[in-house]
């Protein structure tokens, strides 16, 4: 009996410790928020949360954390979605008012520190093999593990051959930089953040390796772009315009010489010869 009582107490203590760890705001933030947000490290898929507690009321933040979709018509949320290229924040599994309050206090505390850092992703570097795999997944050459439709059905990228992909969703050529690089984009892909993506991939979520490969492909697409500097295009246009003006003037002057001056010159020559 004594041994049984000791074991019961030990198991109860372990369960309480586990529950307490799950309620820890720092740990909960790292597991659920850090993939898309930083606190002072800049935008990364989602907005930087540094100072958010001074920009929004505590009540507003609690309501947003409990049910993000309920506030999607709020002007502040509309602007965040626009800035994130249509990305919306999904409901956080296991979120409670107590956890929301704890997260807000944690973010406020971290925001007050002088030099907050970004949690390292801890992922190995992306390779050319990842890029090739991502391209095959994007175009449908390789089927997704969850049997969801290929990205190309709704999205396009600049390097695809005509017709270049679907137009139902946004062009993803610049998604890598717009969503905060490798980590932010991978989090975006894994979270199925938009209403359309949630509807399409409800039972066909991307796996972590698939999100990683697609991130590599879209990163390669962005890196391959070589946009011409605006200054160069303006200078080139000015030079071409100047050349065109000179050619028009030259042709006009030559025609004018032939039509008016050349007969006069011939007449003068003829008069001189007759004398």
Q: What can you see in these coordinates?
A:
This protein has 275 residues and is mostly helical. The protein has three domains: 110 residues, Cytochrome Bc1 Complex, Chain D, domain 2 (Orthogonal Bundle); 97 residues, Cytochrome Bc1 Complex, Chain D, domain 2; 45 residues. 59% of the residues lie in helices and 0% in strands. The chain contains twelve helices and no strands. Helix 2 crosses helix 6, helix 7 crosses helix 11 and helix 9 packs across helix 11. The relative contact order is 0.10.
Short overview:
With 275 residues, the protein is mainly alpha-helical. The chain folds into three domains: 2-111, Cytochrome c-like domain (Cytochrome Bc1 Complex, Chain D, domain 2), CATH 1.10.760.10; 128-224, Orthogonal Bundle (Cytochrome Bc1 Complex, Chain D, domain 2), CATH 1.10.760.10; 231-275. It has twelve helices and no strands.
CATH architecture of the largest domain: Orthogonal Bundle
Number of strands: 0
Q: Give average pLDDT, whole number.
A: 75
Q: How many whole angstroms does the radius of gyration measure?
A: 32 Å
Strand content: under 5%
Total of DSSP H or I helical runs spanning 4+ residues: 12
Provide the number of structural domains. Answer: 3
Low-confidence stretches: 1-22, 115-121, 228-235
**CATH fold description of the largest domain:** Cytochrome Bc1 Complex, Chain D, domain 2
Q: What structural class do helix, strand and pairing data support?
A: mainly alpha
Main beta sheet: none
- Classified by CATH, the class of the largest domain is Mainly Alpha
One letter per element, helices H and strands E, the order comes to HHHHHHHHHHHH
Q: What share of the residues lie within helices? A: 55-70%
The fourth-level CATH homologous superfamily of the largest domain is: Cytochrome c-like domain
The gross shape turns out to be: elongated
- Cα separation of the termini: 147 Å
């Amino acid at each position: 009996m004594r041994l049984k009582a000791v074991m019961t107490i030990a198991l109860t203590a372990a369960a309480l410790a586990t529950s307490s760890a799950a309620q820890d705001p720092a740990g909960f933030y790292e597991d659920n928020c850090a993939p898309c947000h930083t606190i002072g490290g800049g935008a990364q898929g989602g907005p930087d949360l540094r100072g958010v507690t001074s920009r929004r009321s505590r009540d507003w933040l609690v309501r947003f954390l409990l049910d993000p979709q309920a506030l999607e018509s709020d002007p502040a949320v509309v602007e965040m979605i626009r800035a994130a290229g249509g990305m919306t924040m999904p409901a956080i599994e296991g979120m409670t008012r107590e956890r929301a309050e704890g997260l807000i206090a944690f973010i406020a505390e971290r925001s007050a520190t002088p030099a907050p850092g970004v949690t390292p992703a801890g992922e190995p570097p992306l390779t050319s093999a990842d890029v090739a795999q991502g391209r095959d997944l994007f175009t449908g050459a390789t089927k997704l593990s969850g049997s969801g439709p290929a990205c190309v059905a709704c999205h396009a990228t600049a390097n695809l051959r005509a017709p270049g992909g679907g137009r139902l969703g946004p062009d993803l050529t610049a998604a890598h930089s717009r969503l905060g690089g490798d980590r932010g984009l991978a989090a975006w892909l894994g979270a199925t953040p938009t209403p359309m993506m949630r509807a399409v991939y409800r039972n066909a979520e991307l796996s972590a390796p698939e999100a990683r490969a697609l991130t590599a492909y879209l990163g390669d697409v962005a890196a391959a772009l070589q946009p011409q500097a605006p200054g160069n295009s303006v200078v080139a246009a000015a030079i071409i315009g100047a050349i065109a003006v000179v050619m028009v003037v030259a042709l006009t002057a030559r025609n004018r010489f032939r039509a008016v001056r050349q007969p006069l010159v011939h007449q003068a020559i003829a008069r001189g010869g007759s004398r």
